Structure formats: structure tokens, C-alpha cells
Amino acid sequence: MNKAAKNGFALLASGIGLVASAHAQGSVTLYGMLDAGIMYTSKTPGANGRNAGATVSFVNSSYLPSKWGIEGHEDLGGGYKANFKLESGISLANGGFDNNLAGSFFGRQSWVGVSGPLGEVRAGVQFSPFEEAMFELDPRGFQQIGTLVTLYSANNISGTFSPNAFEYRSPEIHGLKGVVMTCLGGHAGDFRQGFCYSGMLTYEIGGLKIVAGALDQVEASGTEESNPNFIFTQPVIAKTIGASYGFDKVRVYANYTTFRGDLLANASGKNDVYNVGAAWEITPFVTTNGTISWILDPDHSNSHTFQASGSVSYDLSKRTSVYGEVAVVSNHGDEHIGPTMENGNLVGVSGTTVAASAGIRHSF
After folding, report:
1. What is the pLDDT of residue 4?
2. Of 329, 362, 327, nearest in space to 39 by CA
3. Of the residues 94, 142, 154, 305, which has the fewest C-beta atoms closer than 10 A?
4. Cβ(259)–Cβ(214) under 8 Å?
């Protein structure tokens, strides 16, 4: 091989190395969860909130929401990264959207941000820090039957998918971390309309984790018909505090949450939620969890709800599992808590309702 050819090959190899190095500085990942099953409910809400009878139905997202998304990171140097996430909910029942900001393609999350030694800043549609705090305190991890997410959503769904949001996430300092978020309403002449703020603090030491969160959402303009995001920006002040402690294979939880808002589904617009539960890894392939909740209207002692639920999951592989869930909800007075997020059962009827499901989920 002559000298010119050798130099050419060396230059080509160098170029390939530079391209590979540049490519290694960034990454884009496609991910998702597919979940479907069959669900039975002993009561179904009908006209005027009355019981329309028992239902057996296909259920999308019985255990966890079906979704897909794209996330990416680029190394900017000096310990800084550019990050983004685009996430959309899927209905396996009809192939359409589900669990999304109304009418939005990437309506679960769609944000871009920068992270570094001093923390991370994000801008776009995000879960509120209050919802993250509720997730951290839920022994059943926001499964879709009889958990803190059903109680949260039955009271007020504001903050689930927060539009027009800016968020700061602090680094961990001796076990302490914080998240703060604000949403801009964007209404001329009225900075408060549609405005929100939310925050979360966590402190972790050993097996103990303490979590507190808050949300203040100011009502947006319009109606549910004229503003697709109206249901996610209903006025509410919500606060939660609790703790969990992990043993070898078991983690126990307890928390207290308050909701205050004119559009809550009871007479006073107030609800207090007390919740305890545990999650247990029986074997590397079998997990179970359970929770008991008491929901009380502080202004009307005859209005209250008792909820108990649990599930068992068996891993067929690292990505595929089968599961069974059951929940019992007993409403009294003016409370109308539903047992599940799916198939119109988020709002419940008076008396006792039993919901049960079995299904399969696959992650990728």
C-alpha cells in the first residue's frame, strides 16, 4: 500500500472515530408500556348518578397506563446535558389516545430542558410535583384500581398533565431533594387565570423516606367544551405529606392528603384522605401490594368513603407480566368515589362497589 493510500485510510478511520465519539455524546430511546385485561364492576354509574348494574368489559390500562414515548439526552460538556421527553397515552381498546392532555398527540409529557451540577430546568407539559409526591406515597404505585391516583383523580384531576409549565429539580443534598413548578395561564390582562404552582420535598435516610407535596391551581377560562384543557386546570388547593419505610422485601406506607376546591364531587368542596398500605416482593418474580383508605368530608361527617384494594403480579420475563387486582369502595352521604380510572368508573355510586380485573402488561 503506498503512502497516499495509507494516509487516506488513516484519515477515514479518524473521521469514523470522530463520528462515533460525537454519536456517543447523545442518545435517543424509544420506550413504552402496553397493558390490557378484563374487568368486572358490581355497580356502574348511570343517569343521575344511579347504579346502572354490573359490567364485564375489556379494560385498557388496568394495571398501569398504556403509553409510548421518546426520550433523549445530549452531553453538553462540563457536567451539563440537554434532555427531552415526548410521551403519549394509547388505548388498546380502539387504537386511539388515552390518559392524555385533551386532544394532544404527546399529551402525557412533552418537555425540553437542561440539567447540570445545580439541578435541572424543564419547560413544557409535565406531571406536577404534587402528583409525583402522591406517586411516591402510594404503596400500589398508581395502579389503576383502588389507589391514590384514583382518589386523586376522583377529587380533582388538576396537575395530572400540566400545560405551559416550567419546572426546577434540585440536586440531592444529604438526602434532601426539591421540585418546584409553575404554569403560566397566558391570559391577557389577568396573570392569575390558569396559573398554578406546585412543589415537592423528599428526604431519604436509610430505609426511611419522607415526602411532602402541594398544588395550587387557579381556574382557567372557558368550559370543558370550549377549552380542551379545562378538566386539567380546575381550581384546587391540594397538599400531601407522608412517609414510607423499607425493610428487606417489604415497604410500608402512610400518608395524609387534603383537597380543597369548589368543583370537588361533594357538597362542601373539601375532602381529607388517610391512607396506609404495604408492598411486598414475595419472590424475584412475584410481587403483591395492598392499601386501605378513608376519605372524609370535614364539614359533613355523614359523607365518607372507605376503600380497600390489592393486587398480585407475576413476571413471565423481565418485560412481560400477568396480574390480578381487586378493590372495594363504599360511599356514604354525598361522596362519589369510583374504584377505577377506566371505563367510566372514576366517579362512583352510593353504597358498596366491587371491582376486579385480570390482565397482561408488556414494557419495551
Report:
1. 44
2. 327
3. 94
4. no
What are the residue boundaries of the structural domains of the chain, listed by start? 29-363
Contacts for 50 with CB less than 8 Å, ≥ 6 apart: 349
Domain 29-363 has CATH 3.40.50.300: no
pLDDT at 85: 98
Output the CA–CA distances (angstroms, integers) from residue 101 to 127, 158, 186, 319, in the order listed. 11, 11, 17, 27
Query: Measuring CA to CA, how many Å separate 285 from each of 263, 315, 322, 334, 337?
Result: 42, 5, 11, 42, 33
Q: What is the pLDDT of residue 195?
A: 87
Q: What is the pLDDT of residue 144?
A: 93
pLDDT for the residue numbered 194: 77
Length of the chain, please? 364
Q: DSSP secondary structure string, 285-331?
A: SEEEEEEEEEEE-TT-TT-EEEEEEEEEEEESSSSEEEEEEEEEEEE
Measure the N-to-C terminal CA separation of the chain; round to a whole number of Å.
48
pLDDT at 227: 55
Cell, residue 325: 387486582
Q: Find, among 337, 258, 329, the residue nearest to 298 by Cα.
A: 258
Mean pLDDT by 10 residues, the chain (364 residues): 45 40 73 97 87 94 95 97 97 90 88 98 97 97 95 86 95 98 82 87 98 90 55 85 97 97 79 97 98 96 96 98 98 92 86 97 97
Q: Which three cell numbers stand for residue 320?
A: 412481560
The H-or-E segment that residue 208 falls in is strand 208-217
Three-point CA angle 258, 260, 261, nearest 5°: 145
* pTM, full prediction: 0.88
CA separation for the pair 26, 28 (Å, rounded)? 7
Exposed/middle/buried for residue 10 (C-beta within 10 Å: 0-12, 13-18, 19+)? exposed
